[in-house]
Amino acid sequence: MIGAGSAGLGAAYELTQRDPSLEVHVYDAASHAGGKIRTLREDGFVIELGPDGFITIKHDVLKFVERIGLTDQLIQTNESGRQALVVSKGKLVPIPMGFQLLGPAQMWSFLKSPLLSPLGKLRVMCEPLIRGRDDEADESLASFIRRRFGGELLEKLVQPLAGGIYTADPEYLSMRCTFPRFVEMERRHGSVVRGLKKGLKAQRAAGGSGQASGARYGLFVSFKDGMDTLPKRLVELIGEHRMRLGHRVTALSPTDDGRWRLQDDRGNDETYDAVVGACAAPALGGLLEDASEDVGSRLKAVPHTSSAVATLCYEKSQFEREPDSFGFVVPMAEGRPLIAASFTSVKYAGRAPEGKLLIRVFLGSAIDASALGGDDAGLIGSAHGQLVELLGVRGEPVLSRVDRYTNAMPQYHVGHMERIAELREAMGGLPPIELAGCGYDGVGIPDTLAAGVRAAGRVLGAP
Ligand SMILES: Cc1cc2nc3c(=O)[nH]c(=O)nc-3n(C[C@H](O)[C@H](O)[C@H](O)COP(=O)(O)OP(=O)(O)OC[C@H]3O[C@@H](n4cnc5c(N)ncnc54)[C@H](O)[C@@H]3O)c2cc1C
Q1: Is 459 left (phi over 0), alpha (psi -120 to 50) or beta?
Q2: Minimal CA–CA distance to 433: which of 300, 304, 295?
Q3: Which residues neighbour 268 within 8 Å (Cβ) at sequence distance 6 or greater?
Q4: Which of helix, strand or coil describes residue 338?
Q5: CB of 450 closer than 6 A to ligand 1?
Q6: Of 176, 173, 121, nearest in space to 149 by CA
Q7: pLDDT, tens only, 60-75
Q8: 230 CB under 6 A from ligand 1?
Q9: 249 lines ligand 1 (CB under 6 A)
Q10: What span, in angstroms and rounded, lies between the C-alpha atoms of 462 and 12?
Q11: What is the distance between the alpha carbons of residues 342 and 361, in angstroms, rounded to a whole number?
Q12: 53-95+214-226+304-409 to CATH, choices 1.20.120.1730, 3.90.660.20, 3.40.50.1820, 2.60.120.230
């Protein structure tokens, strides 16, 4: 395994569960397991440096959590504050109830919202009348939304909501890879609004309120003691003796007998029957370019962008009005240096001591890399300045830090799925090697865990 993020750990867990006698080693350049999952405990705060939770509806992730014995460690988002906001003309405005990432499931609350102009709302209302596409070719998120709902919805709501998740430019983001559910709604129901309404009906019939707005926060969970509960548990189950943390893989070459020779920066030189590449695609590309220039360059061509998270902690008394939502997203058109802010301690219990508030501000994206220039103090100043303007916070943060993710966010551009299929085909001539990780089949914890589990199955010869 190259990489001990959620994909690499998922793969190693599955392999060792299915066949405990296998000699499995997990290499990671970092000294911790978990990759982007990192939790810091400081002054009574539980600070997530990467992901702070995960969606429950993908890939049976809750079953996986159960399998590894962590169900009793899960926490739901708090009941109060299940509301997201969006910056509009310099002010924070609630995202209309029932708005689900790309479209409104409840037209009435959407029409009451001040976010769109009357003309923009009229255009959205016309969506059920717009004919669906005949061809099945992939298209960009921007093209899909302009076609179905008009440009104003894209600019004011969809770009910031989708941008917050994928740190991506909607003009390039592949609809088929990132929002296949909405493509399917158009195909099946002829309309996204009709599809969303049907979904809402079904959800209500099943007992859910369907009232959460924006990202469906009711569907997100985290772990009581922080997200690193997950990698810690996986390492326990995989076995410490199989972990090679702080070992950067430096070379990977095919042997004459169809295996892999792997070397690392600590002087290890080993031969393996199969490899799971669970590090970033360009890093794997660098390791494979000698074995196959074609495969190496295809891997390196998966685009990645950078972002940073500024974590700021305040006394609640520093706020004119204490934040009572889960956070806000920021349209690019507002011209601000941040993409979104998450009020982490409002969202999940146990993240901040009594009387204090923990906020994470997300900076940079495919759209605006300039926000990441300058040193950490500058980024903290910029993030704090935004909170002063938007939330009226007084004084300085009691605790602050910056975590940078340089070229770490894969971008699923239009045609990504086809390119990954071609890449896998090109890898056919190499000794057994499987791709897992966020650069290929989905970002986020459920997708990467599932990618790891699938890769392990393929290593063992399962379909
Ligand atoms: C700030 C931020 C917030 C996020 N929030 C969420 C969220 O709330 N919910 C959610 O589901 N997802 C979230 N994500 C996305 C999620 O964190 C990632 O999609 C997921 O963690 C990726 O896992 P991975 O195993 O593919 O890669 P990674 O976690 O990046 O692991 C790859 C590993 O490969 C190692 N590596 C690289 N090169 C080598 C080498 N040569 N030798 C050995 N090791 C190497 C690296 O050190 C790294 O540990 C967030 C991401 C970021 C950056």
Answers
A1: alpha
A2: 295
A3: 244, 247, 262
A4: strand
A5: no
A6: 121
A7: 899 999 999 999 999 9
A8: no
A9: yes
A10: 15
A11: 6
A12: 3.90.660.20
pLDDT of residue 336: 92
- Calculated CA dihedral for residues 151, 364, 5, 63, nearest 10 degrees: -40
Atom 41 of ligand 1: nearest residue by CA position: 249
Q: Where are the beta strands (DSSP E) in 265-398?
A: 269-272, 275-277, 304-315, 327-329, 338-342, 356-363
2 lines ligand 1 (CB under 6 A): yes
Ligand 1 centroid–CA 442 distance in Å is 12
Q: How far apart, in whole angstroms, are the C-alpha atoms of residue 380 and residue 429? A: 48
CATH topology (fold) of 6-38+228-302+412-459: FAD/NAD(P)-binding domain (3.50.50)
Q: Which two tokens stand for residue 441?
A: 């089949």
The predicted model scores a pTM of 0.94
Architecture of domain 98-210: Orthogonal Bundle (1.10)
Cα-to-centroid distance, 435 and ligand 1 (Å):
14
Q: Which residue has its alpha carbon closest to ligand 1 atom 16?
A: 444
Q: What separation in angstroms does the CA of 169 have from each of 86, 161, 280? A: 18, 12, 20
Which residue from 77, 266, 279, 348 has its CB within 8 A of the most atoms of ligand 1, so it is best to mutate? 279
| Domain extents in the chain | 6-38+228-302+412-459, 53-95+214-226+304-409, 98-210
Instruction: Return the amino acid letter for 267.
Output: G
Q: Decide whether any atom of ligand 1 lies within 6 Å of the 248 Cβ.
A: yes
**In angstroms, what is the span from residue 443 Cα to ligand 1's centroid?**
9
Q: Is the CB of 364 under 6 A from ligand 1?
A: no
Q: How far apart are CA 67 and CA 320, in angstroms?
A: 45
Q: From the CB of 51, is ligand 1 less than 6 Å away?
A: yes
The pLDDT profile of the chain, 463 residues, written as one tens digit per residue, is 999 999 999 999 999 999 999 999 999 999 999 999 999 999 999 999 999 999 998 888 999 999 999 999 999 998 876 789 999 999 999 999 889 889 998 888 899 999 999 999 999 999 999 998 888 899 999 999 999 999 999 999 999 998 778 888 999 999 999 999 999 999 999 999 999 998 888 877 766 544 445 444 458 999 999 999 999 999 999 999 999 999 999 999 999 999 999 999 999 999 999 999 999 999 999 999 999 999 999 999 999 999 999 999 999 999 988 888 999 999 999 999 999 999 999 999 999 999 999 999 999 866 677 778 889 999 999 999 999 999 999 999 999 999 999 999 999 999 999 999 999 999 999 999 999 999 999 999 999 999 999 999 999 986 5
* pLDDT score, position 211: 47
